[in-house]
Amino acid sequence: MSDSIAPYSHETGQIRAMLQTYGPSEISGAKLHDLIRRATPNLNIREAVGILVGPGALSTFVSKYLSDILAVAGSAGGDVKYTIAGVSATPYAPSPQSATSSQVWRAFVSPGSSDLVVVNAESGALSLAAHGVSVSAPKFVIEPCSAAELQGFMAAYIETLDQESQNNFRTSLPPAYSYASWLKCLSSIGGEHFSKWLQFRKEEVLRVFVERVEGRVPAELVNTCVAVMRRSYQEKNAAVTSSAVTTKSGGMVNVGPKPGVLQVPAAKVTMTRDLAQKAIASMSIEQLRELRIPLGVMVDMMADWR
Predict the structure, then answer these.
(1) Beta carbons of 239 and 265 less than 8 angstroms apart
(2) So what CATH class is 3-84?
């Protein structure tokens, strides 16, 4: 190993160890990113490769530091696939996470997550396990929200608006849109919709979660499971909002790294500021007095968007 990669030899060693016990011989870019985050929570791959904004950071990191174990194998749905050299047959099995860990919520709302939520049917406790890991009774695995379900929440929220607002929203939404552009269109019809949408999305996610567990745990434990998931949501929001955001020269922004705290790309932090400013500018004085915008949750959702 050359001196140029020596500063990251420990981190890349941890990543290699997880890759070698991953299980499948291929891994998507989304799942690789999630695996790296779990293996080395304090590693900032953008800083490691000098790409602070925009695409290409992960592929450059792989090329520079992990080319001995990962090779590009094509793409699927716009996401790069990698072949893992020398993987073993046994998938990596992480230790169960705390029942109220913010990662439980994140895994359930992230279709690309390499972890799945595990429910204990006897206690209502929630934990995580990697794809392919065998889980025995009384525990069982539930599938995360699908991309179609997440898109469905967005469509369902628009249906709750009055007809004029729906028409204005659909007129301003481009044919091919990102989540950020969807939020911009939402802000253009009224700043109060941010907090309403965030609350609506949370309840829709919990509704789907209940559908996944009902009939598989005793009826009296369903509310226990939901309570654990709600606490996970609150911890996730608190983790994001506790991350310090500072402005540097040239308009660059940095989310202060803390163990276990989500690292948010600078472009998304800037987008969040723009959205918040636009929302506030559209409010009446009465709305300004009453509205509380949970920006931490919005940043988190934008970071989850793939």
Answers:
(1) no
(2) mainly alpha
